[in-house]
Amino acid sequence: MHPQMVMYEEEFQQVAGLCDRLTREANARCVFVIDKNGQLISASGDTGQLDTTSLASLTAGNIAATGGLAKLLGEKEFSILFHEGERDNLHISIVGGRVILVVIFDHRSSLGLVRLRVKKASEDLARVFDELARKAEQPGTQPTAFAEITDDDIDNLFSD
């Protein structure tokens, strides 16, 4: 298992913006960023018909299984996976060793365009997640479940 990642609002907005940009620039149906535990971090595009929870967990399982195959072959990992279907294609890549980037695209795009746009987006996403890792290591920046609760909130909760 990988440690739980903490997302701050600023980085969440950056990730969401990068997903939106990649969806447009790659002419993709949708884009997802998933942590290696299978938790959906961000989604962009036409996700309405998809079970995003299942997609996230199955993608993480796919990466884990492929990691096992890589080790059997003496590789560190296979950082890019491509699945071609009749209607839709999946381009899956590991970003910065931390998260999984999934691009679902159809005939309106091409593998070449997706790979080109994913390369730039991966660099930008890696910078955001590097910054998150730096924040998490700094003392005093670890948020708690109660970080946003004020004394007034507590007083209001227990007042008659």
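Above is the first protein from milestone M3; the second protein from the same milestone is given next.
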Amino acid sequence: MLRGENLSFRYGKNQPWLFQNLNIEVAPGEIVGLSGASGFGKTTLGKILAGYIAPRSGIVTVNGQPLPKRGYSPVQLIFQNPELSVNPRWRIEKILHEGQPPEQELLKALSIHSNWLTRWPHELSGGELQRIAVARSLNPFTRYLIADEMTAMLDANTQALIWQAVTAYTRQHKLGLLVVSHEAALLKRLGGRIIDLSAKNRGFSPILPH
């Protein structure tokens, strides 16, 4: 279980709280949607759950243990802009092998071509680079995936390809998947629980699965 307990966060002493005393959990093999208007802390919460930033109070645990501070994290976060998650000085092959090499079936499902491996990140389109970011994040060490507006900037065909590959992989390997999005239609298609972060009192309002 990926669990955030009593999480509170604000960016400064004089800034309003984005959220206070929030609890969230994602079980292995579960798809959870996180929705809400801009400014209510969806991306911030995703970063906290992945260990990128620390909450002002509260704790994040994976299977009852704190997130590891060293080594490969079992919780991976995919950003909306893939340029933020790759080293521009590494070729694609090195990026893909940063953790443990992804499965060939996954590369095939994401339509990643072998001739991309010798290229630099700037030589790929945004959709191509996002597929690389997804493939790198989905490896045997990963147990939970947080997708933060992962396909919001991509064309419809690329969006469909990525989501089909990601949902198939997470189901096959029983990964927990937290999808951060303002697109209600996408969250409904993916199924599972939907959590509205902009509900009253800026707390969580679970919506039953569709």
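Note on the second protein: The chain has a mean pLDDT of 90.
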